[in-house]
Amino acid sequence: MKIRALQSSDYEIINPLVDEWWGGRKMSHLLPKLLFNHFNQTSFIVEQDNEIIGFLIGFLSQTFSDKAYIHFVGVHPEYRKCNVGKQLYDCFFEIAIKNNRNTVHCLTSPVNKTSISFHQKMGFDIEEGGVEMEGVSVHTDYDGPDQHRVLFVKKL
Amino acid sequence: MKIRALQSSDYEIINPLVDEWWGGRKMSHLLPKLLFNHFNQTSFIVEQDNEIIGFLIGFLSQTFSDKAYIHFVGVHPEYRKCNVGKQLYDCFFEIAIKNNRNTVHCLTSPVNKTSISFHQKMGFDIEEGGVEMEGVSVHTDYDGPDQHRVLFVKKL
């Protein structure tokens, strides 16, 4: 496995892959091309045999000079147990620290139990929301009506 | 009219407004909450009588230290002839210059003739694409399949 920085041209490969990796669920609207143009140093690609098997899109907060944000992580379904996600997050933590960031933020849907447990294993804490759902604190309507989110923060 | 920096809490007001301002066309998915959290110094709100009548979401490119990017601009339909857009762009140009950026980039759909003409009036050039549509150079499939775009660049 090889990790490298994201390039603008990765968009054409990743865009059709994403909906496929999510079993047909429409996800590619979360990944506009602008993310592939303007956040390359904080976004990463994992390749195996010259094929993309994972990626992470993140950036440095421009509002808060001490925060970094992970927007989207995708891993090829056949490589879900191979630590691809962990490697991507570790790369991001490293570049965030190099840029003097002391916290990383990200979020997931309350239904995504695998993601919640992954983030907890990676050392993220859940940010207290207004409501508890199945034992997890949730920010209701965070990303619009009925778009509830679990918010994570990790100190670096 | 008053212009101020965007705040995270503006999301709750703007999210439902956007689809309304576009006559029911679904636009709010282009404005996830993260944009309201992490790009506040380069994003602006125009208010009239304490009501939001326009906004601009932009950021500094993190890949290219000399570029800035305007992602989304919305103006209340009843204020479309009142220079709200121009004021927002001028504010953005100013903050981009302060941050040592020498070009601003943005894009629109080829069908959006009003937007194309607005950008040309604001001093943007059209970036050469592979195809010409109705006299305008277009980047086909730029934001995914059938998502053609006209790309703009302005030197500051």
Automatic annotation (TrEMBL), chains A, B:
Keywords: Transferase. One of its GO terms (molecular function) is acyltransferase activity, transferring groups other than amino-acyl groups. PANTHER family: N-ACETYLTRANSFERASE, RIBOSOMAL-PROTEIN-ALANINE ACETYLTRANSFERASE. The keyword Transferase applies. This is GNAT family N-acetyltransferase. It comes from the Bacteria. Residues 1-156 form the N-acetyltransferase domain.
